[in-house]
Design a protein that fits this description.
With 103 residues, the chain is an alpha+beta fold. Helices cover 30% and strands 29% of the residues. It contains one helix and five strands. A five-stranded antiparallel β-sheet has the order 4-3-2-1-5, with no helix packed on it.
Length: 103
């Protein structure tokens, strides 16, 4: 009976140690995640998910620059395509800021 109790206590201590280490690790990861902040009339690049299926390292997965027209809660961003003046909503995770080069 004592061996069973010892084994149970040992397992309980190991489980508590594991969960404590896991929560500490997840907490440090959450602190390192950077939120993307966009502003109205900012140029952004849109991730083209269909190109992810095409094999090739030289193929760019980011579409031409779009303009941010509106920002909604929960990371939704309304963008406008300058080529055909079309506007649509996308998830903010699919966007990244566009930095123009020196031309």
């Amino acid at each position: 009976m004592t061996k069973l109790t010892e084994s149970r206590n040992y397992s309980c201590r190991r489980w508590k140690s594991y969960t404590w280490r896991l929560m500490r690790t997840l907490g440090s990861i959450r602190k390192r995640i950077l939120r993307k902040e966009f502003k109205v009339s900012q140029k952004v690049l849109l991730f083209h998910s269909r190109l992810k299926l095409i094999v090739g390292k030289l193929c760019s997965r980011w579409d031409r620059p779009f303009f941010v027209t509106n920002i909604f809660p929960y990371g939704i961003v309304k963008v406008r395509d300058e080529a055909n003046k079309r506007t649509f909503k996308v998830n903010g995770h699919q966007l990244k800021p566009y930095h123009e080069g020196p031309n």
